[in-house]
Amino acid sequence: MDNSPTALFDSYEQDFQQIIDSIRSKLEGDGKDERGEQRKAALRRVEMELDEADEMVSQMEIEIQGIPQSMKPQYQNRLRTAKADLSRYKKLSKDLHSQFSRADLLSSSGRVGTPTSDEPYGPSSDRTRLLAGTAVLEDGTRRLQESQRIALETEDQGAEILMNLRSQREQIENARDTLRTADTAIDRASGTLKKMIRRMYQQRVVTAAIVVVLVLLIAIIVWEKVFN
């Protein structure tokens, strides 16, 4: 398993690119020639894939926080490119949704009838379809906004978690430095204590030798006085 600081970013970027390639094929490739229900289904799939791509970008934004500063500019450029691609295909998808809805409404209006002086907007069924189309567009807009809101919340939560982890890592490193300093101080104290004990034994030996010499001198003096 790759434990490099950029491994997760690279993985999310690869997933994002695969999703973008799928979206591109539906909007700009062979899928753009589809009509009717097939086109509707393709646009619905594009909308779901855009949500997935948005989530991948959010994950990339979280992972970039942990990349070393020396490597971060390169990955920030890659993230900006991904965001630009996502924005472009979101706009293209929205435009195609609008065009398809308008074309569908116009074709329905042509089949049902033409406006009259009593009904300037055409038969009531046309107005119903127009309102339904407007509601669909508004619902799509709301879902996009909700997806963006969720992505922003996820980004904020991820950044907060990352900051907490960084703070905990700093605390652990500080504790490790403190333990290392304490260990050094204990080693120094132990060395000093050994030196003191060694000097104490040396002083005891010297004292004992002095006492023996004094006893011998006293014995000699007493012996000379007694026998002389």
Would you kindly provide a brief summary of this structure?
This protein is mostly helical and 228 residues long.
Indicate the proportion of strand residues: under 5%
Biggest sheet details: none
Number of domains: 1
- Helix % is over 70%
The N- to C-terminal Cα distance equals: 100 Å
Determine the oligomeric state from the structure: single chain
Main structural class: mainly alpha
Q: How would you spell out the order of helices and strands?
A: HHHH
CATH fold-level label: Methane Monooxygenase Hydroxylase, Chain G, domain 1
CATH architecture: Up-down Bundle
Q: How large, in whole angstroms, is the Cα Rg? A: 42 Å
What is the top-level CATH class?
Answer: Mainly Alpha
Protein name: V-snare-domain-containing protein
Would you kindly provide a written description of the structure presented here, covering whatever features stand out?
The protein is 85% helix and 0% strand. It is mainly alpha-helical. The protein has a single domain (7-181), classed as Up-down Bundle (Methane Monooxygenase Hydroxylase, Chain G, domain 1). Helix 1 runs antiparallel to helix 2. The longest helix has 104 residues, at 124-227. Residues 111-123 have low confidence and may be disordered.
